[in-house]
Specification:
about 190 residues; mainly alpha; 8 helices; about 75% helix
């Protein structure tokens, strides 16, 4: 019974801090100050929703056709297809955000940093299958530190619980969660310094 409860808690934590909605919320938070001046504010929300829907459909398609065991793409051999799709998706989003400059400069930085994070995860795949959950949570915390410090602190406090959930669900080893968190924090602090 206790094990079943822990399983539910781990899944809830993993779902609550999934990189997909976390990235969308981060980008909206970063772009929010400029949304009042952007005539295309609604288009931005729709674009982020469309990116999320496209990624969700891709992940479910991969599982349905047997290419992946689970939508998490937890096996190392499943990751390259995921990384390529995300990079393509973020590149399209970045191209759109560049069109909205200078009002969407934070959005450009946020997407650019997310692409760098995915590219680093791809490059490191030979040695480690780092946790994207931890990478994106740490990345979001670092980017939000200056703008929304209370939310950044909440994300930082969530990191140990999220790492536990990923290890408990057997999606990652402790070292993979640590590498993800360190990489996300490093990229986030670097982008925040721009």
């Amino acid at each position: 019974m206790q094990s079943l409860r822990l399983q539910h808690v781990a899944r809830a934590l993993s779902l609550a801090a999934h990189p997909l909605p976390l990235m969308a919320l981060l980008l909206l938070a970063l772009a929010a100050p400029g949304l009042a001046t952007l005539r295309t504010g609604a288009a931005l929300v729709l674009a982020l929703g469309g990116m999320g829907a496209a990624l969700t459909l891709f992940m479910h398609r991969q599982v349905r056709r047997g290419a992946w065991e689970h939508v998490d793409a937890s096996r190392p051999e499943e990751r390259p297809a995921l990384f390529r799709f995300i990079l393509l998706l973020f590149a399209a989003g970045l191209a759109a955000a560049l069109h909205l400059r200078p009002q969407a400069l934070w959005l450009v930085h946020g997407l650019g940093g997310a692409m760098l994070l995915i590219a680093c995860a791809y490059a490191l795949l030979r040695w480690t299958k780092l946790s994207l959950h931890l990478a994106f949570a740490a990345y979001a915390a670092a980017l939000l530190l200056a703008r929304l410090p209370a939310l950044a602190l909440l994300l930082v406090l969530l990191l140990p619980a999220l790492a536990w959930s990923r290890v408990y669900l057997r999606r990652h080893r402790v070292s993979e969660t640590l590498v993800g968190a360190v990489l996300g924090l490093g990229v986030g602090l670097g982008i925040a310094g721009l």
